[in-house]
Amino acid sequence: MLYIIGTGALARNIADTVKALRKKFSFVTNVEEELNQNIYMGVSAIAENSIPHGSSFILGMGNPILRRKVAAQFPLLNPITIIHPSVLLMGEEIEIGEGTFLAANSVLTNRVSIGKHCIVNLASTIEHNSEIGDFCEISPGCHLNGYTKFHHGVSCGSGVITIPHAEVGSWSILGAGAVVKGKIPESSVAVGVPAKVIKAISLED
Fold first, then answer.
1. Residue 82 dihedral angles phi and psi, to the nearest 5°
2. C-alpha closest to that of 203 among 20, 27, 68, 29
3. How confident is the model at residue 205 (pLDDT cuts 50, 70, 90)?
4. pLDDT tens digit string along 24-82?
5. Quick one: CA dihedral 81, 159, 6, 118, positive or negative?
6. What order of strands is seen across the sheet that includes strand 78-79?
7. How many CB atoms lie under 10 A from the CB of residue 149?
């Protein structure tokens, strides 16, 4: 049994993939009104404290800061990586961390490294010699060109493009459609073409 922690859109996207892989799953929630209710595809939700020790889980929420916080609450569970059957892993030396989700039609090429508890959402591409840190969120339709580096906790909006050798600091946010060239400092919000920092943020924002 796989436990998907969360009940929102991302959790349901993961559930679709788990079903395609013919695995059994249940949703997990801390919202009392959702307990034992039909969440999606006839599958109900259980309370967080009902997960048996040693069970497999994956995080079903997008926000990187929240994902890090929730992951720390389950030290006795085993994070599992979920890869949709349509994902293309093209080349050698591809590393994918535990608890990471690769959604349908995403593509990874040579020498790509992805950390723990990341999301690579629908139809996104990560090209050669790129490095993605832990807890990163890559939204649908992104194209990360070769030698891109995301430090931990980067949140990347839909349709973001990186120019080769782009680097984004930890816990930064890239607005949808941004084109990233050069370096974006940590804990920043960057938007536009080319992407420019519009404000600094803290982990409490």
1. -120, 125
2. 68
3. low
4. 999 999 888 888 778 888 888 899 888 998 999 999 999 999 999 999 999 889 999 99
5. positive
6. 38-40, 43-47, 25-29, 2-5, 56-59, 78-79
7. 19
